[in-house]
Design a protein that fits this description.
The structure is a homodimer.
Chain A lengths: L4 H10 L1 H13 L10 H15 L2 E5 L6 E6 L7 E7 L19 E3 L2 E3 L7 H18 L5 E7 L9 H7 L8 E3 L4 E2 L5 E4 L1 E13 L5 E2 L9 H10 L22 H8 L5 H8 L10 H10 L2 E10 L8 E2 L2 E10 L5 H14 L5 E9 L2 E2 L5 H14 L4 E3 L2 E4 L2 H7 L4 E2 L17 E3 H20 L2
Parallel strand pairs in A: 3-6, 3-7, 7-19, 9-17, 10-18
Antiparallel strand pairs in A: 1-2, 2-6, 4-5, 5-20, 8-9, 10-14, 10-15, 10-16, 11-13, 12-14
Helix pairs in contact in A: 1-4, 1-13, 2-4, 4-13, 5-12, 11-13
Chain lengths: ~450, ~450
């Protein structure tokens, strides 16, 4: 469905100052989910901005941050697009490293600074402004839009899945446009069709009621040893996962999937240098490393604490041992399944004394190649940047795609214009390029038109 | 060699106030080896006190605290007794828990309070005063005494072994009287013929140059996993040590040794309750637990630190992992041997990337039954308390007996009067019973006479 790009671009140009002023207001409203600062105020601000568009907006309370849900566009549109964004941001710490006030929009040399500029207020608002520009210059929207804007993305989206399950009948759509798209150092547009899932667990083992003198070791169970023995049964020294049943839920990849992974550009030498590595794990080749990086599920020890860990020696037998484990999930693995398998695995080996506390997670998401959203995003990439995007079959990171994409069965595309290689998301001096802020509007308009028109 | 106990006891009684005044001066002189406070001053004070006895005293400098070495008694005495004590003390922390000033002698309800009262200034000085009382009331000493008083016992006696090796020709003796003897809750006199050795190591494994996002786990070596895998090869889940070659250096015990262990009274139920345990390791019986407690070598995880260990979840792949290990050594195991075996064991399994830093240690000491010092101590126990002592074949703890006893081949006895069950050594409100302070003098005199006379 072609649209009048001249009118669209002119409108954006004419409203440039107001759009940026609105962006400044979004940045100025603190909305830190971690300590709940400004969350209701920010949610209200998003509701109001959707109302200005003429959208039907509902604020859904959750046990955490409320979810803003907006619908706009013809009720009888042939296609429905779901869009996902979030209005919460990371804390500003360490605040002393900011060169500009974190909650004040500062524009300098073509860069907009402030907490949330790129993650994710810039993309959220530029998409809203793109819809406004479409409505003002093209008339009716070419699709129905269902917009989910949550307020807990930065702390694990703990209440999104329950909400999705509850309102699944309302949440039908033909495709899902995700947040956070961008490009790499070489200017290659990065798009993706999913991501790995994640499950995070804390395991604890109790020993004596307090640290004992280590001379009692011959007769007192040591929780540190028990944890080491239990952990050593989960993965072997060749890095093969040996957790009972885990790998049965991991399908092998198709030739097409391997090919799309092989095509992903990676600066292996640069990355190894940056990470201080002389070689990849087990000395694998770059080719093998790329395949494993994108495809493999993991069980990672993120941290262990037990006993005395200060300077010098202290002869103690620890009262407790704790490990934090991060499971990256692919294919059919879910956090619930991972927990069940882990519990059974430990019990089967007599480690019933080791407790498992789940600390959040999400299943994986993986959309099929050739979906409508993928084709629309590729076409919009050609329109906006004049080039073919790099299409990742999925990202090695994790995020809350699972409930909206996997659970609801909606193909997802991770695509957009706002993430350049130095956005410093989650860090001081978070920023977005001024040009990208407006390019995001053009990409959004093009995406809408192709999503409506692709056959 | 009987001696006139009436004269001896009367002298002690008559000099009671001066003896306590001297004790107050010893307590008043801070001598914390950990932070080197007052060490030279305390060493000088000990030298001076020996000189008052008429001893030949030498102050041997070491890279740490100096060693005070005194000889006294007839050059041509038939027998030579070596005595070991130390003049350093533990730090006074946490000082706010002291009910009296730590470096001021306070006598209250028959108890003398102050840092070092029991560990080990009380025993050191009461033994010196016993020698004075002998000289003043009996004439010449019945034996030659070689007295080693070190100033680093509380921080691992790191320089004692070198000194012993250097002066081994000077350090000949027929028996060695150790520091720290006492009695238990039931009033049973506890004596011992040795102790386990100890070796303390810190192992480190390096991963990437800094903590990475855990999504890179499929291709980046994780030092926490490597440490877990390495540790799991050292001991199996049934608590059997599987370190290559370690157990080959451990001889089995004789029937007589098992019998003397079986005879050691232990309040199993009380101890389990105090430690918060429902059962011993692997559910072993009390009988088996006592045998294992006294006889088994150990490898104990005292502490592990790696990655993120704060609240909640943080998805990191750690840059480093560290473990502190404590080996309790018996029979022919030494710290040097333990380190060599550990290095070879790790290398053989490809863990060449795990570094080992030794943090001190001592070999074990184990004197044969029936030695002169043992017989003298048993006889002195009958003289002093009118009862047979509990004779431990060795103690499950560790100490610097190895250089003076094992290396020099001198049978050792751990025996004395100053340790009651609530002395709070190393803790606030360290104390010694007033009566025990003087009983230590009587025990010492009796021990000297029996050591000279036993056939």
């Amino acid at each position: 469905m072609p649209y009048n790009t001249t009118l669209f671009d002119t409108y954006i140009e004419q409203n440039r100052d107001r759009f940026l002023k609105e962006f400044g207001e979004f940045i100025g409203q603190i909305s830190v989910a971690a300590d709940k600062r400004g969350i209701p105020e920010m949610a209200d601000m998003v509701v109001e901005r959707f109302q200005q568009l003429g959208a039907t907006v509902t604020l859904y309370p959750t046990p955490g941050s409320p979810i803003v849900y907006a619908e706009i566009g013809p009720q009888d549109a042939e296609r429905t697009l779901m869009i996902y964004n979030h209005y919460d941001v990371q804390p500003e710490d360490p605040v002393e490293l900011w060169e500009t006030p974190p909650y004040e929009m500062t524009i300098k040399d073509g860069v907009i600074y402030g907490r949330g500029t790129s993650d994710d207020k810039g993309e959220l608002l530029s998409r809203i402004q793109a819809v406004e520009a479409w409505l003002k210059t093209q008339g009716e929207l070419p699709v129905r839009i269902k917009w989910v804007v949550e307020g807990e993305e930065e702390i694990g989206s703990d209440h999104l899945e329950d909400w999705v399950r509850r309102y699944s009948e309302m949440l039908t759509a033909d495709g899902l446009l995700w947040e956070g798209g961008g490009y790499d150092e070489a200017g290659r547009i990065q798009m993706g069709l999913g991501c790995k899932g994640i499950a995070y667990f804390e395991l604890r083992c109790q020993g004596p009621s307090h640290d004992l003198h280590s001379s009692v070791a011959p007769i007192v169970p040591n929780p540190a040893w028990r944890l080491v023995w239990a952990l050593s049964t989960l993965k072997d020294p060749d890095d093969n996962i040996t957790l009972d049943g885990y790998m049965e839920h991991v399908a092998s990849l198709s030739e097409e999937e391997w090919a799309s992974i092989d095509a992903i550009p990676m600066e292996f030498e640069t990355i190894r240098e940056r990470w201080g590595l002389s070689a990849w794990l087990n000395g694998m080749t770059d080719h093998a490393a790329r395949r494993r990086y994108f495809s493999a599920p993991t069980i990672t020890i993120c941290g262990i604490q037990t006993g005395y860990t200060g300077a010098g020696s202290k002869t103690v037998l620890p009262a407790e041992a704790m490990v934090k484990l991060d499971f990256r999930l692919v294919h059919n693995l879910t956090p619930e399944l991972a927990e069940t398998l882990l519990r059974q695995h430990l019990d089967r080996r007599g480690f019933t004394d080791i407790s498992i506390t789940p600390l959040g997670g999400d299943g994986p998401a993986k959309s099929p190649r050739g979906s409508l959203v993928e084709r629309a995003a590729i076409a919009a990439s050609h329109d906006t940047w004049g080039k073919e995007p790099m299409m990742y079959p999925w990202f090695p990171g994790s995020g809350p795609m699972y409930p909206l994409s996997t659970l609801l069965g909606i193909p997802v595309i991770f695509a957009g214009a706002t993430w350049h290689p130095d956005i410093r998301a989650h860090s001081p001096n978070e920023n977005i390029f001024l040009k990208d802020y407006f390019e995001s509007m053009r990409f959004t308009a093009s995406f809408l038109s192709h999503f409506a028109a692709e056959v």
